[in-house]
UniProtKB/TrEMBL annotation:
The chain crosses the membrane at residues 7-27. Residues 370-388 have a biased composition (Basic residues). It comes from the Bacteria. This is DUF748 domain-containing protein. Keywords: Membrane, Transmembrane, Transmembrane helix. The keyword Transmembrane helix applies. Residues 363-396 are annotated as: Disordered.
Length: 396
């Protein structure tokens, strides 16, 4: 056998062996990367390599909170595909994309750290960079599920989004100039627990502990009877029928935010003379009667709609909802001009950015006033000491 043939066969054998061993080494690398994520830890069951596509598939990825008491894992993804974009490669750019199929995210909100699971305590952008150490141009998910437990804590109220599809672009190719939102994202899903659907779209700047964003969020045709647990707790009433849609725009820059919520009810019914299957207290009977009368007074008769706009301002830690603009919004909808079932398109990222700059100016002014006050106090103290020394000298 010729030497060249032997070399060729040896290369083929080497490639085959490398192909067989590569998934093992990649699996070890991925599990090592996921083992220590700060407050979280992860594990992958299997890796499949697709050399011709320049990709690898991660099977059964699970991430759990360390020392957490939440039963469900924070992330569970049966199948993920991480690959190189060949079209970009032909243009001389090495970028990749990530696709996740049937992913599940489980958030839990609680003041108790052990029963809270929000993703804080881990650098998720670093995880993605380590698993695919090239520029990431696209992240997509298909047929996912997002559970939010205790979103409203008193009473406990959960929100589940199902059949979730979404896409996030330009994750790593960011412009770090102030006021820049280079990463667009959209998300859609069903809200089976309340009936209705959800649609979310935003432009974001992700490479921060708390990302900057400018979003549009809408929930359509939520069934009011599904909200009765909250209605009983906060208003001592039951809804008997009707739907609600919610529109919201929000912009946030460095934890400073500006936006609104616009709830609109349709065909809302609160009071019925007889409610079969339920023993209603006298207090609730009259509360629901008064609420029904109030809703009739505040309803836009032409559209059978009660609505308002709730301004949201402040910081992520202290969100303010002014009362009077909310009340005037109800009256405006009823007697002046009905709110439209759409976005108002009057919130921009510039609003939050200006608010942030105003906050910086306020802090500077506060620090300046504090320094001035301290200087005055030190001056008064020096004058007092001089007066005491002078008085002591005069006695001598």
């Amino acid at each position: 056998m010729k030497r060249s043939v032997k070399i060729f066969i040896a290369l083929i054998v080497l490639i085959v062996v490398a192909r067989l061993l590569l998934p093992y080494f990649v699996l070890r690398y991925v599990n090592k990367t996921l083992a220590d994520l700060g407050d979280y830890t992860g594990h992958v069951e299997d890796i499949d390599i697709a050399l011709l596509r320049g990709a690898y598939q991660i099977n059964n990825l699970v991430i759990r909170k360390v020392n957490g008491k939440v039963k469900e894992p924070f992330v569970s993804i049966p199948k993920s595909d991480l690959s190189v974009e060949w079209r970009a490669l032909f243009k001389g750019r090495l970028v990749g994309e990530v696709e996740c199929y049937k992913p599940e995210l489980n958030f839990a909100f609680s003041e108790n750290e052990a029963t809270s699971q929000t993703g804080e305590g881990a650098d998720w952008t670093k995880v993605v960079k380590d698993l695919l150490p090239i520029q990431i141009n696209r992240f997509a998910l298909f047929d996912g599920r997002i559970d939010l437990k205790n979103l409203v804590t008193n009473p406990g109220s959960d929100l589940s989004l199902q059949k979730v599809n979404g896409e996030l672009k330009n994750i790593r190719n960011v412009d770090e100039k102030p006021g820049s939102l280079p990463s667009p994202v959209w998300l859609t899903g069903d809200v089976p627990g309340y009936g209705g659907t959800m649609r979310f779209s935003a432009n974001t700047y992700l490479l921060k502990d708390i990302p900057d964003f400018n979003y549009d969020l809408q929930f359509n045709d939520l069934q009011l009877v599904k909200l009765n647990e909250l209605a009983r707790h906060y208003a001592n009433v039951d809804f008997e029928g009707g739907t609600m849609s919610v529109f919201s725009e929000m912009a946030m820059n460095d934890r400073k935010l500006n936006g609104y919520l616009k709830p609109l009810t349709k065909d809302m019914t609160i009071f019925r003379l007889k409610e079969p299957g339920e023993k209603r207290t006298i207090g609730r009977f009259f509360t629901e009667l008064l609420a029904e009368g109030g809703s009739e007074v505040l309803e836009n008769q032409k559209r059978d709609q009660v609505a308002t706009r709730v301004p949201l301002t402040g910081t992520i830690d202290d969100i303010k909802t002014p009362v009077w603009p909310t009340i005037f919004g109800v009256l405006r909808n009823a007697y002046v001009s009905a709110f439209e079932k759409k976005f108002d398109n009057d919130i921009t990222f510039t609003d939050a950015f200006k608010s942030f700059k105003e906050s910086v100016k306020e802090k500077r002014a506060e620090r300046k006033a504090e320094r001035k006050q301290k200087r005055a106090a030190r001056k008064a103290e020096r004058q007092r000491r001089r007066a005491e020394r002078k008085a002591a000298n005069d006695k001598k």
